[in-house]
Amino acid sequence: MTLSNSAFSWPVRVYYEDTDAGGVVFYANYLKFFERARTEMLRDRGFEQDQLLREQNLIFVVRSVRVDYLKPARFNDLLQATASVVEHQKTNLTFAQTLMRGQDQLASGEIRIACLDAQTMKPKPIPLAILETLN
Protein backbone atom coordinates (compact mmCIF):
# COMPACT_ATOMS: atom_id res chain seq x y z
CA MET A 1 0.00 0.00 0.00
CA THR A 2 1.30 3.46 -0.89
CA LEU A 3 0.90 6.29 1.60
CA SER A 4 1.07 10.02 1.19
CA ASN A 5 1.84 11.99 4.30
CA SER A 6 3.89 15.05 5.03
CA ALA A 7 7.51 14.51 5.96
CA PHE A 8 8.59 14.54 9.58
CA SER A 9 11.68 16.70 10.12
CA TRP A 10 14.34 16.42 12.85
CA PRO A 11 17.28 18.80 13.43
CA VAL A 12 20.78 17.30 13.32
CA ARG A 13 23.98 19.12 14.22
CA VAL A 14 27.16 17.77 12.60
CA TYR A 15 29.78 17.07 15.26
CA TYR A 16 33.50 16.65 14.71
CA GLU A 17 33.12 12.91 15.35
CA ASP A 18 30.74 12.70 12.34
CA THR A 19 33.42 13.85 9.90
CA ASP A 20 36.34 12.23 8.13
CA ALA A 21 39.90 13.58 7.83
CA GLY A 22 38.72 16.06 5.19
CA GLY A 23 36.09 17.60 7.48
CA VAL A 24 33.22 16.09 5.48
CA VAL A 25 30.55 13.89 7.06
CA PHE A 26 31.58 10.25 6.67
CA TYR A 27 29.14 8.56 4.28
CA ALA A 28 27.85 5.96 6.78
CA ASN A 29 26.89 8.69 9.24
CA TYR A 30 24.13 9.87 6.92
CA LEU A 31 22.40 6.60 7.83
CA LYS A 32 22.64 7.55 11.51
CA PHE A 33 21.00 10.89 10.76
CA PHE A 34 18.21 9.12 8.87
CA GLU A 35 17.79 6.68 11.79
CA ARG A 36 17.33 9.56 14.22
CA ALA A 37 14.57 11.04 12.08
CA ARG A 38 12.70 7.72 11.88
CA THR A 39 13.06 7.12 15.62
CA GLU A 40 11.91 10.63 16.49
CA MET A 41 8.99 10.32 14.07
CA LEU A 42 7.77 7.23 15.95
CA ARG A 43 8.38 8.95 19.30
CA ASP A 44 6.48 12.05 18.12
CA ARG A 45 3.54 9.80 17.29
CA GLY A 46 3.58 8.12 20.72
CA PHE A 47 5.67 5.01 20.11
CA GLU A 48 8.87 4.34 22.04
CA GLN A 49 10.89 1.48 20.63
CA ASP A 50 12.02 0.19 24.03
CA GLN A 51 8.38 0.09 25.12
CA LEU A 52 7.38 -1.80 21.95
CA LEU A 53 10.07 -4.36 22.77
CA ARG A 54 8.96 -4.79 26.39
CA GLU A 55 5.21 -4.78 25.80
CA GLN A 56 4.84 -6.35 22.34
CA ASN A 57 8.13 -8.20 21.83
CA LEU A 58 8.56 -6.16 18.65
CA ILE A 59 11.63 -4.64 17.06
CA PHE A 60 12.27 -2.76 13.83
CA VAL A 61 15.35 -3.58 11.76
CA VAL A 62 16.73 -2.17 8.53
CA ARG A 63 16.08 -4.53 5.63
CA SER A 64 17.46 -2.46 2.76
CA VAL A 65 18.96 0.96 2.07
CA ARG A 66 19.47 3.07 -1.03
CA VAL A 67 21.18 6.44 -0.61
CA ASP A 68 22.16 9.13 -3.10
CA TYR A 69 24.85 11.51 -1.83
CA LEU A 70 24.38 14.87 -3.55
CA LYS A 71 26.40 17.48 -1.62
CA PRO A 72 28.73 17.22 1.36
CA ALA A 73 27.73 18.04 4.92
CA ARG A 74 30.50 19.53 7.05
CA PHE A 75 31.46 20.04 10.67
CA ASN A 76 29.04 22.23 12.63
CA ASP A 77 26.36 22.31 9.91
CA LEU A 78 22.80 22.40 11.20
CA LEU A 79 20.79 19.99 9.09
CA GLN A 80 17.24 18.70 8.86
CA ALA A 81 16.70 14.98 8.44
CA THR A 82 13.26 14.14 7.08
CA ALA A 83 11.30 10.92 7.06
CA SER A 84 8.01 9.97 5.49
CA VAL A 85 6.41 6.58 5.02
CA VAL A 86 5.82 6.04 1.32
CA GLU A 87 4.75 2.40 1.39
CA HIS A 88 3.80 -0.29 3.84
CA GLN A 89 3.14 -3.96 3.74
CA LYS A 90 2.08 -6.33 6.48
CA THR A 91 5.54 -6.58 8.05
CA ASN A 92 7.54 -3.67 6.64
CA LEU A 93 7.61 0.07 6.06
CA THR A 94 9.44 1.99 3.34
CA PHE A 95 10.64 5.47 4.25
CA ALA A 96 11.68 8.23 1.86
CA GLN A 97 14.30 10.34 3.61
CA THR A 98 16.29 13.47 2.90
CA LEU A 99 19.05 15.39 4.57
CA MET A 100 18.78 19.14 4.05
CA ARG A 101 20.97 22.16 4.83
CA GLY A 102 18.59 25.06 4.40
CA GLN A 103 17.21 24.68 0.88
CA ASP A 104 20.10 22.45 -0.26
CA GLN A 105 19.39 18.74 -0.43
CA LEU A 106 22.54 16.89 0.63
CA ALA A 107 21.30 13.31 0.46
CA SER A 108 18.19 11.31 -0.26
CA GLY A 109 17.41 7.75 0.56
CA GLU A 110 14.87 5.00 0.65
CA ILE A 111 15.04 2.76 3.70
CA ARG A 112 12.93 -0.34 4.18
CA ILE A 113 12.30 -1.34 7.78
CA ALA A 114 11.08 -4.80 8.80
CA CYS A 115 9.04 -5.52 11.90
CA LEU A 116 10.28 -8.61 13.74
CA ASP A 117 9.45 -10.73 16.75
CA ALA A 118 12.36 -9.91 19.07
CA GLN A 119 12.80 -13.50 20.27
CA THR A 120 12.42 -15.47 17.04
CA MET A 121 13.71 -12.72 14.72
CA LYS A 122 10.92 -13.66 12.30
CA PRO A 123 8.63 -11.16 10.55
CA LYS A 124 5.75 -9.89 12.65
CA PRO A 125 2.79 -7.77 11.51
CA ILE A 126 3.15 -4.07 12.23
CA PRO A 127 0.60 -3.08 14.91
CA LEU A 128 -2.45 -1.36 13.45
CA ALA A 129 -2.06 1.54 15.88
CA ILE A 130 1.35 2.36 14.38
CA LEU A 131 0.08 2.11 10.83
CA GLU A 132 -2.89 4.37 11.60
CA THR A 133 -0.67 7.12 13.02
CA LEU A 134 1.70 6.97 10.05
CA ASN A 135 -1.14 7.09 7.49
Automatic annotation (TrEMBL):
<dbReference type="InterPro" id="IPR006684">
    <property type="entry name" value="YbgC/YbaW"/>
</dbReference>
<dbReference type="InterPro" id="IPR014166">
    <property type="entry name" value="Tol-Pal_acyl-CoA_thioesterase"/>
</dbReference>
<dbReference type="InterPro" id="IPR029069">
    <property type="entry name" value="HotDog_dom_sf"/>
</dbReference>
<comment type="similarity">
    <text>Belongs to the 4-hydroxybenzoyl-CoA thioesterase family.</text>
</comment>
<protein>
    <submittedName>
        <fullName>4-hydroxybenzoyl-CoA thioesterase</fullName>
    </submittedName>
</protein>
<dbReference type="Pfam" id="PF13279">
    <property type="entry name" value="4HBT_2"/>
</dbReference>
<dbReference type="GO" id="GO:0047617">
    <property type="term" value="F:fatty acyl-CoA hydrolase activity"/>
</dbReference>
<dbReference type="InterPro" id="IPR050563">
    <property type="entry name" value="4-hydroxybenzoyl-CoA_TE"/>
</dbReference>
<keyword id="KW-0378">Hydrolase</keyword>
